[in-house]
Write a sequence for this structure.
C-alpha cells in the first residue's frame, strides 16, 4: 500500500465561503477518486495554536496508482480552482505503508 | 474516532544519524503508545520537491485519549530529545474521524 498525506493551511484573508468551497471540492474529489484509493478529509479541531486547517490522507494500492491519482484532471482542477487560491502553506509526504 | 496527523521536516544541517535517531524514537513511541491508539510512521518517498521528511498518523478512540497520548512523558521525551533538536518545520492537524 502507498499513502499520500497533505496538510493545508489557508491564508488568513481567505473567507469562510472560500474555505468551505475548498473543503467541498476536496470532498467531491474524495468521491471521484474511489477508483484510485480511499481519501479521508479532516478539518482541524482547533486544539493547538499553529495547526494546519485541514488534512487529507489517501491510501492507494501502490506508487503507480498514486501517480495516476495525482495527474487526474479532476484532482488538478480541485487544487487549481479551489485550494491553491487560498493556500498559505502545504505540507505533504508520500510513503510506503 | 479521533485522528492526529503531523508532518515533520528536518533541518538541512541535521545528520543522517540524527534523523534515524528521531525515526527510531518515533517508532519506539509507536510501540509504547498502543495503550492509546495506533500510530503509523511514514518516511517520505522523495517523489516531490518541498515535501516533508516524515509523517505520523495516529488514530485514537476520542479527543480525551488524544490529550492523554500527547501528555505522556514518553511522548514528550521522544519529541524533546530526538525530534525537536532537528526540526525545521511541523505541520499538524487533529480531527474527528
Amino acid at each position: 500500500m502507498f499513502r499520500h498525506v497533505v496538510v493545508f493551511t489557508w491564508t488568513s484573508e481567505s473567507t469562510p465561503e472560500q474555505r468551505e468551497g475548498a473543503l467541498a471540492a476536496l470532498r467531491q474529489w474524495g468521491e471521484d477518486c474511489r477508483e484510485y484509493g480511499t481519501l479521508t478529509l479532516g478539518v482541524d479541531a482547533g486544539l493547538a495554536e499553529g495547526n494546519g486547517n485541514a488534512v487529507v490522507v489517501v491510501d492507494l494500492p501502490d506508487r503507480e496508482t498514486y501517480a495516476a491519482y495525482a495527474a487526474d484532471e479532476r484532482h488538478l482542477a480541485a487544487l487549481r480552482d479551489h485550494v491553491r487560491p487560498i493556500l498559505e502553506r502545504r505540507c505533504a509526504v508520500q510513503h510506503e505503508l
